[in-house]
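Worked Example 4.2. Consider the chain below.
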Amino acid sequence: MNKSKLLLIIISLAFIVFIFFSVLRPAINGEEGICVQASKQFDAPSKARFVDASSNLVFCESESGVMPVLTNKEFTKVKNTFGELDFQEFKEEKVERGLISWQVEEDPKEKFSMISGFANDEVKSIKLNSEAGIQPNRIFLREDLWLWYFIADKGKINMPVEVMAIDENGNIISEDNE
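Applying the procedure from the previous section yields the following structure tokens:
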């Protein structure tokens, strides 16, 4: 066999292997890539649970909780990560805090503020009285667990935050101020 034919065969095989791995390798979309970057703060692998394209937010879920991640417009770079909402903490502190758990995140550098939290199935609606009675967005996570969040338009949350939980009959079942 001639050296040029052997070289041609080796180059052809290398090209085929390259194409094979390029095409068949699982692609990571922008949101999943964001969660891979955010996983460093979780200290556990996470996956994209929900994407809010209008706010450039990706909600990354791990075994322990959900972390909101602010991204660039292309969803390729993490701009800021927010405190993780912990599943276990929500279950354990139900007696102390009631049916909802929430946190306020403000970042003046990004002009981005958010109220987020968990609620169980008893809570059918939440109103943020300190934000003119606005109802936050709700995301179903699993049986008896909802994630809810609100993004402040002007980047500023009205303090103190006043949260009201409402049941399916329209009754107030929890009010909290912080």
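The first strand starts at residue 47 and ends at 52. Helices lie at 3-24, 30-42, 87-92, 94-97. Compare this with Example 4.1 before moving on.
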